[in-house]
Specification:
elongated
């Protein structure tokens, strides 16, 4: 049922085309009803191949640009994700080291001297006294 109020505007969503109407797939215009078979065939095969070539090239270029933009996005996305994962892993290792040093301080052990820590720090691997955060990508 249609609304008849004065301010009502009928939009495209309110209209129906032949695909929406059941059993009305082959609705023909008045001019197509009076065409001969030869005219119908000639109109069906009529095409401007130069214009088609231009449009096809533009479409290929458009899709190539979209693909290159998508590939560039993927590269930057994965680079940023890897950088973030490296920062998270560094922070987790640093937190484990801090927890170990705090436990040593509570136990009354002397902190290691600055000269001995110049090399690479070995972190405890089986430390389970704090909450672990696991990030999966």
């Amino acid at each position: 049922m249609k609304r008849k109020s004065p301010g009502y505007i009928e939009l495209m969503a309110h209209s129906r085309n032949s695909a929406d109407i059941p059993r009305a797939r082959d609705i023909r215009t008045a001019s197509s009803l009076f065409m001969t078979r030869e005219e119908r065939e000639s109109l069906g095969s009529a095409m401007d191949y130069r214009a088609l070539g231009l449009v096809a090239r533009r479409e290929r270029d458009k899709f190539a640009r979209q693909d290159s933009v998508l590939e560039k996005f993927r590269e930057t996305y994965f680079r940023a994700r890897e950088k973030l994962a490296a920062t998270i892993n560094k922070n987790q290792a640093l937190m484990e080291l801090r927890h170990e040093l705090q436990q040593r301080r509570r136990a009354g052990e002397e902190p290691a001297s600055q000269a001995s820590n110049r090399g690479e720090v070995k972190l405890p691997l089986d430390e389970n006294n704090f909450n672990h955060v696991e990030l999966r990508y």
